Amino acid sequence: MNFFKLFFILFVTLILCGEDELKSPYRFIKAKTGLTLREQADTESESLGNIPEGKIVKVLEILETDVNIKGRISKWAKVIYSYKEGYVVNSFLEDDLEDEKEVVLKKEDIIGKWKGEWHWGKKYTNIQFKKNSFKAELFAGGDESAYTGFTRIGTWKLSPEKNPTEVCLNTKDDNVCFFLYNKKLVVNMNHSYKEKKNHFLENYDYDILSGLIKEK
Question: Concatenated DSSP letters for 2-63?
């Protein structure tokens, strides 16, 4: 093998490795009944809980082991969710749900209270949308003896102006956009989390706010 051919192979390898490093490790849960987080890469392994659809996990590793779920062949993914490490079926993870935005939004679709998963005492993570402003109460973290939350306030608008499919929240520090997926507010990862740290994180900054359900 001559020098130029060897250099070319090394050059391509470095490019491909760089691309892999730039890819986001975060994935959406796409399973209507949620996805079981298991202690080991085994369908009989102990469950660590159910991750609701629309939530986001951080992928640590894709294993070579195949799993057959009702005729669906996939691999196991080692993930972290709410600072728990475990295994889920990789075929129920999606890079992005943006292509599946449901409907053109109106303000009345958004105005109201949207509830999240985490809670401290009787108070749950939520975003309350008024005419042009919002108040978000997020779970900061804690244990059985002491739970804490924090509040973020700002303005919101529908985007784009014509045929809007997203609701974008703005504060003095940053912004985040959501769209509707299966009647849940799901975060737009491409818009919100690439350029800078976003402050709509909760649970010791382990969880990205996503998958909120509107209260009736």
Answer: -HHHHHHHHHHHHHHHHHHHHS--EEEE--TT-EEEESSSSTTSPEEEEEPTT-EEEEEEEE
